[in-house]
User: Which sequence fits this backbone?
């Protein structure tokens, strides 16, 4: 009898925890705003991004995946906006001993890898209303270069910043239409490093046919980072925002 009861309970738990999978591919249009500064021995100043031509729109492709395991849900996303332009530095840029002085005209390239992995727990069970809390990591991968006109002097940037975050998601689904908001945030200071990061992802989706869904959204990522890596310092105070459109499937 005990074995039969245990088997029934196990089957019930497995049924409740039947995994689900949502995947999607999206195309976005993002803009970049803010300031950056890099130096050795301290950051003497910052340069506005639009002053070096990095405020223009970027059109990256992104991917998302959501794995439902009952109450816990795994959320993954990745997109890499890249920006390129020309302008004049307002402050020195010094990375790994290579310096381009303030006032120099430069050609700039900046690629911002935005990777996200979250673990969420449902606070309100049900298929119509969704409210979940959790935690995870937003990985920021900065890759770029600044090349001085005339001299060809080049400063290279390659910095990966794993950012632990708290996360919350709220949504409502009525018939074929669903609307949701996913927010992650962290604000900490440690060993002369300051980090304040918030990511807001608003999305509306609609069932198309079979497992297929179409969706559109708005994402706003704001980052205020000051870090020290040995003798190198960096200041990155930016906002990346824009619309995206995608198609996906639910299983």
Assistant:
């Amino acid at each position: 009898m005990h074995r039969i009861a245990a088997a029934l309970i196990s089957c019930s738990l497995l049924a409740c925890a039947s995994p689900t999978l949502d995947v999607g591919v999206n195309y976005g249009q993002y803009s970049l705003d803010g300031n950056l500064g890099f130096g050795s021995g301290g950051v003497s100043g910052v340069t506005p991004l639009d002053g070096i031509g990095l405020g223009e729109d970027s059109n990256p492709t992104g991917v998302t995946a959501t794995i439902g395991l009952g109450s816990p849900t795994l959320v993954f996303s990745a997109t890499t906006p890249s920006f390129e332009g020309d302008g004049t530095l307002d402050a020195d840029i010094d990375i790994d001993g290579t310096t381009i002085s303030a006032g120099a005209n430069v050609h700039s390239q900046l690629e911002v890898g935005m990777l996200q992995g979250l673990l969420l727990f449902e606070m309100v069970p049900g298929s119509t209303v969704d409210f979940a809390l959790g935690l995870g990591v937003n990985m920021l991968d900065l890759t770029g270069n600044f090349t001085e006109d005339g001299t060809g002097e080049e400063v290279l940037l390659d910095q990966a910043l794993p950012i632990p975050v708290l996360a919350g998601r709220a949504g409502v689904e009525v018939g074929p239409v669903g609307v949701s908001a996913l927010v992650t945030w962290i604000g900490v200071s440690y060993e002369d490093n300051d980090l304040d990061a918030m990511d807001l992802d608003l999305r509306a989706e609609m069932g198309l046919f079979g497992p297929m869904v179409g969706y559109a959204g708005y994402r706003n990522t704001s980052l205020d980072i000051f870090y020290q890596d040995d003798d190198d310092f960096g200041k990155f105070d930016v906002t990346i925002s824009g619309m995206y459109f995608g198609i996906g499937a639910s299983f």
